[in-house]
Amino acid sequence: MNTSANTLASIVLIHGGFVDGSGWQGVYQQLKKDGYEVTVVQNPTTSLADDVAFTKRAIAEQKSPVILVGHSYGGVVVTEAGNDPKVAGLVYITAFAPDAGESVASLIANPPPGASVPPILPPQDGFLMLDKEKFQASFAADVDAETARFMADSQVPWGLPALQGAVTTPAWKSKPSWYLVAGDDHMIPPAAQRNMAQRAGATIKEVGGSHAVYVSNPQAVAQWIKQAATAIRK
Fold it and tell me: Which PANTHER family does UniProt cross-reference here (predicted)?
């Protein structure tokens, strides 16, 4: 690797609901190998406001222009926090890309006929979980069984204020964006991903893969992030 690290963007990775930042390990390793500074934000997923605040603290620490990457609900965080002046570009990995006033709750309110419905259990004390027995099929169908079981058993409760948190000003209206569609996703229908990506004016790529494509195919995800970082640098 002969590129000086200080010429590269800083990559900030934002996880989604039900999981923590450890799922980014494979993507992190790929990006670090290529000389990028990488920060994995451990958001509490208690509310959108809390998660944006955590993310903005991570952005503030970066020394280079930031590529902000969000998976799933992390896309909502990216859409709001991406207005920070340090952020040069946004990357959505099979993620929600809301417009002003939209939240995950509003975006999933009316699923199209035949679309997969995530196995979200009724809220307990204001927090949501996925049915552990259905976790792999819905979230991580192409992840090995042992890892998928660990992901199911180590779920992070997802707060209703995070689900319901609405975006004020979408950063994709003023920042360039890239979107990776996972064609075999059973959490966010691929058609919905394509619609959100097109609405955001994102550069779009599609790969086969489950909602956990960042775990099952970190090479493809890291490559897409690097493509965004390269475009920003040019």
Answer: AB HYDROLASE-1 DOMAIN-CONTAINING PROTEIN-RELATED (PTHR37017), ESTERASE_LIPASE_THIOESTERASE DOMAIN-CONTAINING PROTEIN (PTHR37017:SF11)
This prediction's pTM: 0.95
Question: How far is Cα 31 from Cα 15, in angstroms, rounded to an integer?
Answer: 16
How many Cβ atoms are within 10 Å of 155's Cβ, its own excluded?
17
Give the span between the Cα atoms of 87 and 77, in whole angstroms.
13
Structure tokens, 195: 């619609």
Helix pair 145-153, 132-139: axis angle to 10 deg: 120
Q: Which residues pair with 89 in a beta bridge?
A: 67
- In angstroms, the CA 124 to CA 218 distance is 33
Give ∠ CA 143-146-150 in degrees, rounded to 5: 95
Tens-place pLDDT, residues 81-104: 999 999 999 999 999 999 999 999
6: pLDDT strictly greater than 60: no
Q: How far apart are CA 222 and CA 208, in angstroms?
A: 15
CA–CA separation, 183 and 142 (whole Å): 12
Question: Could you tell me the domains of the chain?
Answer: 5-233 (3.40.50.1820)
d(CA 213, CA 217): 5
